[in-house]
Specification:
The chain contains 1 helix and 15 strands, in the order αβββββββββββββββ. By secondary structure, the chain is mostly beta strands. It has 2 domains: about 120 residues, Lipocalin (Beta Barrel), CATH 2.40.128; about 30 residues, no CATH class. The strands form 5 sheets. The chain has a 6-stranded antiparallel beta barrel. The protein has a two-stranded antiparallel sheet with strand order 1-15. A two-stranded antiparallel ribbon has the order 3-13. It starts with a helix and ends in a 6-residue tail after the last strand.
């Protein structure tokens, strides 16, 4: 009975002292959707030898400030994977989309993110039309010419296009990552 009373008393004392603890005041905030983060690629990746789901890594090249705080310091690592990949076909180059799902601060703290490598083509890298396979030469005669034999030769694209090529992002390439969902930050690096 005495042991039970001692355990109960020590439990009550620990609960009472824990309620009096003062916690550090954390400033929680959100980094808004649409924020652009300049990064460099830490490895080369290509549609020629990468598959959907392959991991890719990036590093922030400049500090991102919000509310007069450095919320994403230079050197922050971002990690993601190839979300979608299209092989090259006749008429269209290969294409891929890279989804970013993790951000690692310099102290090792991991934050989940939702972002893509930004391109003006709806965040798809590559996918452009290929040039025509051949051009057809068509003569055009001017009506104003003194002699009807004078004219110009116009080259018109033919109906067939060339075979598409693979898309490669070199190691160290400057890219931009755009957030598609806000990041809820509860942790920042204090220098």
């Amino acid at each position: 009975m005495r042991v039970l009373f001692t355990i109960l008393l020590s439990f009550l004392i620990s609960v009472a002292s824990a309620s009096e603890l003062t916690l550090r005041d954390y400033d929680e905030f959100d980094i808004p959707t649409g924020t652009h983060i300049p990064v460099i690629s830490l490895q080369e990746f290509s549609t020629a030898y990468c598959e959907e789901g392959d991991r890719v890594n990036f590093e922030a090249t400049s500090d991102i400030y919000l509310y007069n705080k450095n919320v994403i310091p230079q050197g922050t690592r971002l990690s993601g994977y190839i979300d979608k990949k299209n092989e090259p076909i006749i008429g269209t180059n290969a294409a891929m989309r890279v989804f970013i799902n993790k951000m690692y601060l310099s102290d090792g703290y991991e934050i989940p993110v939702k972002a893509y490598v930004y391109t003006s083509n709806n965040n798809i890298i590559g996918g452009q039309l290929t040039p025509p396979e051949k051009y057809i030469r068509i003569p055009h005669y001017q009506r104003w010419a003194m002699f009807r034999a004078m004219g110009t030769l116009q080259c018109v694209p033919g109906g067939q296009r060339k075979m598409g090529e693979h898309v490669t992002i070199a190691s160290g390439a400057d890219l931009i990552i755009v957030l598609v969902a806000p990041i809820h930050m509860t942790h920042t690096i204090i220098n």
